[in-house]
Amino acid sequence: MAKFFIGTHLGDTRSVIWTLILSAVLFFSWVEYTEAQSGPVLIIGDGNVLVGQTTVIDIEIDNFTTGLSGYDIEFGFYEPQSAGVAEVTNGAASVDFGLATSDTQNRVVTIRAVDLSDNIDFRSGRTLIATITVQGNLPGDSDLGAIITRLDDDSGFAISVRIQPGVISVARGFPTVPGGVGPATDISGDGHAEDVNGNGQEDFNDIVLLFVNLFDPTVSGNIIFFDFDSSGAIDFADVVRLFSDFQAL
Q: Which residues sit opposite 103 in a β-bridge?
């Protein structure tokens, strides 16, 4: 009877020890994950662009608690599976940097900048450090990434940073909807083609054409342009939303 009690006690002790070990491993893993998520991050913005056109992407930093004295960073599209979808055509450091250069070669841009006036210090939150101009070449999505050569804090020490890539979505140009006088256009600048009939203005005929061609491929196949209610689908609710927005003009 005593042996059975001792054996059971030892077994329970081992279970407690293993539980404590597992808990410690999970805790430290959580701490490492939290630090990684809350540490310095380089944020590359997302963007939408039409084939043959360009858009400007913001490059920001956050959680730089030791400041930023300067950087040397290359930006480009590096994933082979999305090659050719978009390319970097230009780039520039933000006005916070007193000294900066930009060099574009082979569809990537390298920006080098120095914060001469100490505009970015430990008190700075999310801060714009550069802008990148991207051109759309083929319909599809592509990740805009970065390769960091130097990234120094206010004491000159290298900063270990997490890079958050930006997703660039490239779409075909605005289509000509049956019954329209030309390609639909985006009047408001929000990426949606409010001018459905392509006459250069918003009018009642835009609402009529959208309704009549709701299931035509020129509309249903271009959700990105005609999904006015941002539901992810083309339906009568988009007609209602276009009418509502027109009334608000």
A: 110
107 Rama class: left (phi>0) / alpha (psi -120 to 50) / beta = left
What total number of domains does the chain contain? 3
Q: How far apart are CA 185 and CA 191, in angstroms?
A: 9
| Half-sphere exposure in the Cβ direction for 248 (13 Å, CA) | 7
Same domain, 153 and 196: no
- DSSP code of 82? G
Whether residues 103 and 134 share a domain: the answer is yes
How confident is the prediction along the chain (249 residues), in pLDDT tens digits per residue? 444 444 445 556 767 677 777 777 766 655 455 444 579 999 999 998 888 888 999 999 999 999 999 999 999 999 887 778 999 999 999 998 999 999 999 889 999 999 999 999 888 889 999 999 999 988 899 999 999 999 999 999 999 999 999 999 998 788 899 999 999 999 988 889 999 999 999 999 999 999 999 999 999 988 889 999 999 999 999 999 999 999 887
The contacts of residue 5 (CB under 8 Å, 6+ apart) are none
- The pTM assigned to this predicted structure is 0.63
